[in-house]
Amino acid sequence: MSATGPVKAITVPDIMARKGTVPLVCLTAYTTPVAALSDAHCDIALVGDSVGMVLHGLPSTLEVTMEMMVLHGKAVRRGLKKALMVVDMPFGSYEEGPAQAFRNAARLMSETGCAAVKLEGGETMRETISFLTTRGIPVMGHVGLTPQAVNAFGGYRVQGRGEAAERIRRDALAVAEAGAFSVVLEKLTESLARKITSELAVPTIGIGASPACDGQILVIDDMLGMFTDFKPKFVKRYADLGRAADEAISAYAKDVRDRAFPDENHVFMDVQGSGGSETA
Ligand code: KIV
User: Fold this and answer.
1) Which residues are catalytic?
2) Domains of the chain from N-terminus onward
3) pLDDT confidence of residue 186
4) How many angstroms is it from 83 CA to the middle of ligand 1?
5) Confidence check: pLDDT of 280 > 70
């Protein structure tokens, strides 16, 4: 509830209606407190499989499991009132075919309470996306640089320069035609992102794909500056939390070693006659 009544949760049709209007604000979220902080400001909270690299220290998203997505999805759900929650389908949970994808997408929806799932891939995912969307599972597509295919790409390079542009354009069209309600465009040149955005009837959400998209998404830990040694070109840092945390932990360590913490403000004393209290 807010001062003016209950908060209205954003729906999939609300997101689709934003095509070509006010840009969609999207961030990843993996935990309850961070989801709660983002909720007031964001249209979409994506429980990205980037959680594997960001929170679990994994070398890529390939090791992320359904169990991890369910666990983080449940945590994020508890922090949201307004933003539309989308959960990534992890590598290996949907590529076998529509039936496997449906089983795992349904599990993500029923166990986490998310409103939609996201999966990577273009033309090859057409049948699967169509299968899911015609059975009540809203799907967000993801084309361009698809991190689950990092081994095939040989790295996390910009996509869509030269001949590959036409293939990526066709991938985006296939995903939208199959029923996706929005499509993430990752690490594409501005001209390609602009072309795809103008051709698709559903919103495009860019990450490293220029302001031509209908919305933007970033990994929240990147934009908060949690990693002092990781700063890709497409990320703008809105805070320097990694450095702030380092300074705070260093100050704490010094205080403990100097016996400067805890001081009298953090110590429980006997209270004469009352037997003491939990908080005083
Ligand atoms: O997993 C992820 O974080 C993503 C991006 C689009 C942000 O898929």
Assistant:
1) 186
2) 12-239 (3.20.20.60), 241-280 (no CATH)
3) 97
4) 16
5) no
